[in-house]
Amino acid sequence: MKRLDSRFHGNDNPDESGVHFSTFCESFKLETQDRLRENDENMLKVRESKKLVPEKMGSILIRGTNWIGDVIMTLPAIAAVRNTAPHAKITVLAKPWVAETYRICPEVDEVIIYQDPGVHHGIAGDLAILLQNAIEAAIIAWLAGIPVRAGYNSDGRGILLTHSVKRTAERRKVHQVYYYLEMLKSLGFQPAGSDIKLKLNDDYLTIAEDILDQHQIGGKDILIGMAPGATYGPAKMWFPERFAAVADKLINDFSARVMLFGSGGDSERTTLVQQHSKNDLIDMAGKTSLKEAIALIARCNLFISNDSGLMHLAGALDIPLVAIFGSTNPVTTSPVGEKSIVIHKDVSCSPCLKKECPTDFRCMDLIGIDDVYNAARDILDGAQ
């Protein structure tokens, strides 16, 4: 196989100097699979590698995951890297919409924004750890000339890795935190525990105060955050009218203020919650940056959410949390944090992991208003 031309760009309008990155990645994957089926000896030799010695790595590049929830669940793995290589410079290559999460991770020294498509500068290191499972992560590390490249052998990329970790069926069944920790353990890193540690500086407090002042919310007011949306389809989302009913009960019983969170894509859902509520809720969906959302969630006395990135973020910030699970699996993706309560009904078809329910949506329908309200009430009562 020919080494990729260093002029590769991956722009949306390919010219004679480049091709579209995603097309190249797919072609590369298919070619490697064909060659491996043909038992190409030269390609198989790439799998032979010396033992990885993390302590000797002076500069480590980590290709981060692409979604907020996944980022949160990889943070213990990054802590394991720091624990094993305390003097190394740790740089994370991350998509722009999750970069802020890595910036508040104390183990990370630098964040490089991965703009797709585009040419990137500063991607280098003695070792690349690929937390993202896709082949493009391996291609980028290979093109950057990073001599040691390690990660799970997923998406046909094993041939590009000097240190390939087998992704077994058993590892896919454990919580995602341990899925990534097990990869690092296999590579010789020493885990630092499964706790999530996010550190906010005073800038976040100022941001939260400025926004809350605009809505006449003081420091002693009870603030409840709700995230009624979720990516990956409606099967992950509890009913907006039930979110509204819980909000109304909490406002009536605790004189709380309720703030709705989400991206611009969640605004239709938050609008429905407001329409069903008897009270004025504060709808921030699509109106905040990730940094602003982090600052506001950190101020919340309680957060109620579907299985979403914001749910994981609230747990990582150690905010008391009620997490609602339907089609997804709390065994593998439940929120971190000792203050989290998971609401989930055991039904035969859950977890199905489907975007839309093909039957009667019983996994969510069985979760009543009182199930969520009672969990929220117990948290607030315990805090008083």
Notes on the structure:
- This protein is α/β, with parallel strands linked by helices.
- Helices cover 38% and strands 14% of the residues.
- The strands form two sheets. A six-stranded parallel beta sheet has the order 3-2-1-4-5-6, sandwiched between helices. Strands 9-8-7-10-11-12 form a six-stranded parallel beta sheet, with helices on both faces.
- The protein is globular and about 65 Å long.
- The model is unreliable at 1-19 and 39-48 (pLDDT under 50).
Task: Give the helices and strands, then pairings.
Blueprint: H1 21-37, H2 41-44, E1 59-63, H3 68-84, E2 89-94, H4 99-103, E3 110-113, E4 127-130, H5 135-143, E5 148-152, E6 163-165, H6 169-173, H7 176-186, H8 202-214, E7 223-227, H9 240-254, E8 257-260, H10 267-276, E9 282-283, H11 290-299, E10 302-306, H12 309-316, E11 321-325, H13 330-333, E12 340-344, H14 362-365, H15 369-383
Parallel strand pairs: 1-2, 1-4, 2-3, 4-5, 5-6, 7-8, 7-10, 8-9, 10-11, 11-12
Helix pairs in contact: 3-7, 3-12, 8-11, 9-10, 9-15
Summarize it:
The protein is an alpha/beta fold and 384 residues long. The chain is 38% helix and 14% strand.
Descriptors:
384 residues, alpha/beta, 6-stranded parallel β-sheet
